[in-house]
Amino acid sequence: MRDARAEVRRPIGLRLWLSGGWLSLLALAAIFAPLIAPHDPLAQDLFLGRLPPFWEDGTEPGYVLGTDSLGRDVLSRILYGARLALIVALVAGTLTCLIGATLGLVAGYYRGWCDRIISRFVDIWMAFPPVLFAILLIAVLGPGLISIIIAIVVIDWTRFARVIRAEAMSQGAMDYVASAQVAGRTQFGTMLTEILPNVLPTIVALLTLEMGIAVIVEAILSFVNLSISTDSPTWGGMIAEGRTSVHQAWWVLVFPLITLFLTVLSFSQLGEGLKDRFDPVLR
Q: Topology versus the membrane, per the UniProt entry (predicted)?
């Protein structure tokens, strides 16, 4: 039995270590970008335009991942772009989680008219196409970091509300909830001390997944020039620029694309791993 459990937990542990390691490395790189970035991400030198990575012929010392068409260092721009991506992921993901999970928990536990109002509002809100809605909000609010965060929160809180509502309804039908109410505990106290701890693994999984989605949304908005200033380094902006010169300088597209993919995948796997590790049913 112990061997079987070890086999089940081993991929979970590996998933947590790999995803957590990548995100930790990325966070450290973003924090210490001014110290470890080899060049100014905004510095241009047309004489150094489209230098290849260090392992190809024709490169220059100090430009590990090459340069773009304006001679800007690709590695430095990726490091500084990680700052914006992680800020959007943490702030937008946390706010979305707080709003959506709170409404979903209240609707799923109290039910009745409260559930009907919140559920109908969620249904109406989810009728809007999310990407087009985000672009519309950015067009109204204007490009900028705060506008991006507001757009993500306004759009994605419904995902938390629907999932947590279903989890809260399922937990609310359990015997331990009835026992807490018989013991004289208030509804609000039961929700906080009995329901919330059992839906917390789902909330954590959704939170990390939402952080990955926030990174994607920011990259999409940067790709269409609706993020922050076009001069600021963003992964989406680098991908948009690399797309136009992929045959002449493939590295401008490939390296930020790989970084974006690994970051989103790590957020997703981290959430699934944490849910499997701390879910009381699986334990």
A: Multi-pass membrane protein
